[in-house]
Amino acid sequence: MAEVKNKQVVLKDYATGFPKESDMDIVEGTISLNLPEGSNEVLLKNLYLSCDPYMQMLMSKIEGLEGFGTYAPGSPLAGFGVAKILESGHPDYKNGDLVWGFVKWKKYSLVPSSQTLFKIKHTDVPLSYYTEIFGMPGMTAYGGFFELGCPKKGEKVFVSAASGAVGQLVGQFAKLTGCYVVGSAGSQEKVDILKNKLGFDEAFNYKEESNLDAALKRYFPEGIDIYFENVGGKTLDAVLLNMRSHGRIPVCGMISQYNLSQPEGVTNLANLIYKEIKMQGFIVSQFYPLYPKFLEFILPHIREGKIAYVEDIVEGLEGGPAALVSLFSGQNLGKKIVAIAPE
Known about the structure:
By secondary structure, this protein is an alpha/beta fold. The protein contains nine helices and 15 strands. Strands 3, 4, 5, 6, 7, 14 and 15 form a seven-stranded mixed sheet that branches.
């Protein structure tokens, strides 16, 4: 059996506060490139790995997250990625298939055939897109915005963390629907990208706004119909004051709260009652059955150049820890991806 070196990123110890590069290690082991006789597992060669904010929670020792695939010290990180099947012991997959799904942060990875892997059938677009537009972020934006946000033409949409992997798509979906959309981000460079590359009607740097309530009233004098929530905390509190009656708030993430020892309180929740606002959290896997419908929607827009996307690609698994940590200091521009190997 052919044994090869297999580099991986492992968690050294549970992270506290912001993740640090020192919380992770690059470890080299070995793996056989031949499946055992009778195995129904699938052997993957990882091509691209996705860096996502939720991974910080999986690195921390947080009660109640045990069922969400939290990492244990000494074990490899895991997340969404694009891979090529080298050996398959299952009839649904064949050698050479390209797939995306939840994989370990290794050069090669062995996964059970019961694990959900989506076959990549459209290769006329960059494979890296399957960590983003056609992968988990795309499904998150699509399901959260259309299924929970229920947008109507002419409505007013606000997206926080709008230059991130999910936010940049939500804003463009809103424009395709005929909505007015404003995004917030953490630098002038990101604000410029939102307005000049991604087609947002307006955008602002939340770090330069001393009064978020006043800022939102400036951009939404008639109020907000849909708020796509990515950050939580003070932003959510200000948004609640500016929501319109029967507004919708799909709750995708709360990145401003993940590293706080004491989360910020939200004081304006009473607006949910008398404005009859629907606020709903979600996990992307609930929308996976919609994947064929999602591809049918988005592929023509990508091919016709109607949707733009900003990638921030780091080469080599060794750069994975720094790439992941950069998400929490606002250094990334667009979707952070680790490129491991060419196809």
